[in-house]
Amino acid sequence: GDGDGDGDGDGSTVRFLKELGFTNVKHEKRDFYADVRNDTVPTHHTLITKPPYSEDHKERCVQYAANNLRKKNVPFFILMPDCIAVRNHLRSVVLDGIGKSLCDILYVVPATMPYEYARPEQGQGTGKEIPPFRSIWFCGIPINKVEAAKAAFRKTYGPNSVGISAQQPQQGTKRKSSTSSTASKIACSTPRLFSMLEELNAAGAVPRERVAESEAGFQAAAAAAAAQFNHWL
Q1: pTM above 0.90, yes or no
Q2: Residue-range definition of the domain harbouring residue 139
Q3: Where is this region: Disordered (predicted)?
Q4: Is 6's pLDDT higher than 80?
Q5: Is residue 33 included in any domain, yes or no?
Q6: Is 172 part of any domain?
């Protein structure tokens, strides 16, 4: 694309992505589902999105992105509520047919807690909305580049920014217990990267009551994953 799409109204998204090195950005108001159905999705090497949180948009977006990752090695970065990490539809994508993680989907918990969202029509310099949940990035990385991605994250944010070590208390300090259902009370000065639900749970980065629900549904998720992966092959 030409990078001049108007999906955010003022072009700020395109400008920001260019600052990060994405020099050729397609960001337009399009019927994404029609593009998928008609095989007219613009050629791309990375998908970055925040799907609508209503109805089944999250599920459909994750399914499309994971399929593209595993068939075409196209990485994705999807911003969604933290609770999605423990929903069965996401677990069915993450797990293989025997309940083992495929290890190609990572989770980045932002340092800012929670994210503030600006509506497209608001533009810059106007009020923003703080949602009643915490958002995390779901990052699909080609399996042969996962370790390189972790190394790059450590280089940028420090040696303890990857995995549960980022949450270990310093020697001589006591860890405070928390019964909060969200991670909004857990402070950290830098983003953190996790590769498993167990790490997210141990770090308090997902709603704990949702984890219990997810554990109960893992077998169903694994069965669904097996059926889906067989369809992909």
Answers
A1: no
A2: 45-167+183-232
A3: 163-184
A4: no
A5: no
A6: no
Number of domains making up the chain: 1
Query: For tokens 């077998």, what's the residue?
Result: 219
| Cα–Cα dist 225/92, whole Å | 5
pLDDT higher than 70, residue 114: no
What pLDDT does residue 182 have? Answer: 41
**Considering the chain, what percentage of its residues have pLDDT values greater than 70?**
63
Crossing angle (nearest 10°) for helices 218-232 and 208-216: 70
pLDDT digits (tens, 9 = 90+) for 211-223: 444 444 444 544 5
The answer to whether position 50 is within a domain reads yes
Question: Distance between CA atoms of 72 and 12, rounded to whole angstroms?
Answer: 29
* Domain assignment present for 34: no
Rounded average pLDDT over 218-232: 48
